Amino acid sequence: MSIIVFGSINLDLVATASHLPTSGETLLGNNFFQVPGGKGANQAVALARLGIPTQMVGRVGSKSFGAELLDNLQTAGVQTENILLDETISSGVAIIIVDDAGQNQIVVIPGANGQINQTDIERLSPLLPTAKALLLQLEIPLNAVIASAKAGRNANITVILDPAPAQSNLPAELYPLLDIITPNEVEAGQLVGFAVDSPESAAKAGAVFLQRGVKSAIVKLGAKGVVCATAEETFFVPAFAVQAVDTVAAGDAFNGGLAAALYTGMTLHQAVIWGAAAGALAATKLGAQTSLPDKLTFDAFLKEKSMKYEG
Q1: Backbone phi, then psi, for 224, in 5-degree steps?
Q2: What values do phi and psi take at 106, rounded to 5?
C-alpha cells in the first residue's frame, strides 16, 4: 500500500543579482544554484521523507536534467519506476532571477510536464487499486488531471487536489471527483470569486466547494491558520508559530503531512494538524525540496508543540 503522486517534476535554475534586469540589460549576477522542484515532485518528497511509501508518476526529459531529477527523487526515497523518460523534449525548468530585495522574475518552461497525456493515465491506472491515495496538482495539462481523478474515483481511493498554480475556474466535472481540495487563500479566492483572507471567508469558500461536490475543503491561510469544511462540520486549526524564512513549498509540505496522517489512519482533524506542522517546518528553511522535513525532525517538532498524535 502506497500513496501515488501524479504531477510535475521541475528543475529550478536560480540566479541572484542586485536588481532585476530591465529590457535589453545585461547584468552581472552574484550567485547561481539549481534546486529540484515541481509541485508534484515536492509533494512526493514530502511524503517519502515522512516515511510513507510513495510512488511518483510523471515525465522528465532525456535532453536535459532528467537523470538528475530522477536521482534526486530516488535519494529521497520516492519510487520512480513509473516516471517516463521522454526522448522528445527537455525536462520542466523554471528560470528564476532574485534580487537583493527578494523580488523575482520567473520563466517556467513546462517541458515534459506539458506532454503528459492519456498514455500516462494508462501507466497510472494499474497502480491505483493497491494505493491509499492519489495526490494531484495543476502543473500538468488539465485534461490529464481530470482523467486521473476519474481513475482514482473508479479505484475507490482518496483523491486530493492542490489547485495550484491558481486558476480563475475549474471545470464543474472535476469537483465531484475529489475527496479533498487544498487551496491557499489566493487560490481559494480565484476559484470562488470573492476575497478569502480570514477564517470566516475561508469557511464561506469551503461551503462553496462542498456545494460543487467536494467531500472536504481545506483552505490554507498561512500564518492565519487552516479552515476545514466537511458536510458534518467546519473547524479551524491555528498555525504553528515559527520564524518563517521562505514559504516556497510550504503548501506542498502541508499536503505531504496531511496525506501522511491519513495514510496512518488518523482523523481528518489530526491530518490537518500534521499538514500545518509540516508546512510550518518547511517555511523555516530556504528552498523547495531542501526545506521539507524528515520524520525525526517532524516528530520532534510535534512533540515540542505538545500535539497528541499516533505514530
Answers
A1: -90, 0
A2: -135, 130
Q: Is 299 a catalytic residue?
A: no
Cell output for 290: 531542501
Q: Residues 99, 252, 294, 299: which is the catalytic one?
A: 252
pLDDT at 247 over 70: no
Radius of gyration of the chain (CA): 19
- Give the amino acid at 151: A
The residue written with cell numbers 491519513 in the block is: 262
For residue 200, what are the CA distances in angstroms to 219, 221, 228?
11, 11, 11
In this structure, how many other beta carbons lie within 10 angstroms of the beta carbon of residue 169? 8
- Give the strand order in the sheet containing 104-109: 31-37, 10-16, 92-98, 104-109
Q: What is the pLDDT of residues 184-216, one digit of tens each?
A: 999 999 999 999 999 999 999 999 999 999 999
Pairing state between β 226-230 and 216-220: antiparallel
- Give the integer Cα–Cα distance in Å for 239 and 233: 19
Going from the N-terminus, what domains does the chain have, and what CATH number goes with each?
2-9+38-91+112-161+240-304 (3.40.1190.20)
Among 288, 304, 305, smallest CA distance to 49 is for 288
- Would you tell me how many other CB atoms lie within 10 Å of the CB of residue 311? 15
Cα pseudo-dihedral 34, 39, 45, 48, rounded to 10 = 180
